[in-house]
């Protein structure tokens, strides 16, 4: 009975079992990493101001060059 269950699950060899375990473990670790780092990627206000300034300068240059 036990051997039938193992074969039905596709676990004929230890390497197959290891592949299943590692796939599930990597998925769990990815979810944990995502939850921990959910909102850490926000740019500081200084960077946002520099980006706005650059965008305005770029728009002015494009208008001057008539692009």
Would you write up a description of this structure?
This protein is an all-alpha fold. Helix content is 76%, strand content 0%. It is built from three helices and no strands. The N and C termini lie far apart (75 Å).
In short:
The chain is mainly α and 67 residues long.
Descriptive terms for the model:
single chain; 67 residues; mainly alpha; 3 helices
What are the low-pLDDT stretches, counting only 5+ consecutive residues below 50? none
Strand content: under 5%
Give the proportion of residues in helices: over 70%
Order of H and E elements: HHH
What is the number of helical segments per DSSP (H or I, 4+ residues)?
3
Instruction: Label the structural class.
Output: mainly alpha
What coarse outline follows from CA principal-axis ratios? Answer: elongated
How many strand units? 0
Biggest pleated-sheet summary: none
| Terminal CA distance | 75 Å
Using the CA coordinates, give the radius of gyration: 27 Å
Give the integer mean of the pLDDT values. 83
Topology:
Elements: H1 2-8, H2 14-36, H3 45-65
């Amino acid at each position: 009975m036990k051997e039938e269950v193992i074969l039905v699950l596709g676990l004929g060899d230890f390497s197959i079992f290891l592949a299943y375990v590692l796939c599930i473990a990597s998925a769990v670790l990815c979810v944990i990493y995502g939850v921990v780092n959910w909102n850490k990627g926000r740019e500081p206000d200084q960077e946002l101001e520099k980006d706005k300034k650059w965008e305005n300068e770029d728009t002015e240059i494009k208008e001057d060059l008539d692009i």
